[in-house]
Amino acid sequence: MPKTYDQAYFDKWYRDPAHAVGAPAALRRKVALAVAQAEYYLGRPLRNVLDVGCGEAPWRAPLRALRPGVDYRGLDASQYVVARYGRSRNIGLARFGQLEHLRFDTRFDLIVCSDVLHYLKPAEIRAGLAGIAGMAEGVAFLEVFTSRDGVDGDLEGFHARAPEWYLRAFADAGLLPCGSHCYLAPRLGRRIAALELARLPAGTAR
């Protein structure tokens, strides 16, 4: 039976002290990290953010606390989320894989996809990553956990893939790893130094 991302799900994993993981202070630090990375590589203040698989949009408030004028747009596959928060938090209905064909009238300085990819099937991941690479102006924050990580929280439907699987998928999409779950848009590739990338350059002797 498919998982249902309804109010009961979000109440359990985000508000119930017996199950919720991640403190508000930790989220604020994560948001600050992603904003700083994007602004560093863009060389200017953050203008807009696309939050994919945003749930109830927990990133929105800390983003706006840091950058009050930022244009925030969320996407989620939950009917509950869009019905309840779609208008007030600017959340549209979309699955991750639909990013392959979904486009907006702008590219995004920061694209966020936090705690989503490890619940998806390979074909949907690859399709969505192609869309992220096409829409990213600056940095994509792709927080994903692997078979080498100790994972807390919702394990239903969790795919414990090797880190190398994701690195290949990100590389195939043209995304460049710069550390701490951050990946540079392909168009930034010529503007960065070799050691800013969190990988060995191709052909490097070991």
TrEMBL record:
One of its GO terms (molecular function) is methyltransferase activity. Transmembrane segments: none annotated. GO terms for biological process: methylation. It comes from Fulvimonas soli. The keyword Methyltransferase applies. The keyword Protein biosynthesis does not apply. This is Methyltransferase family protein. Keywords: Methyltransferase, Transferase. Signal peptide: none annotated.
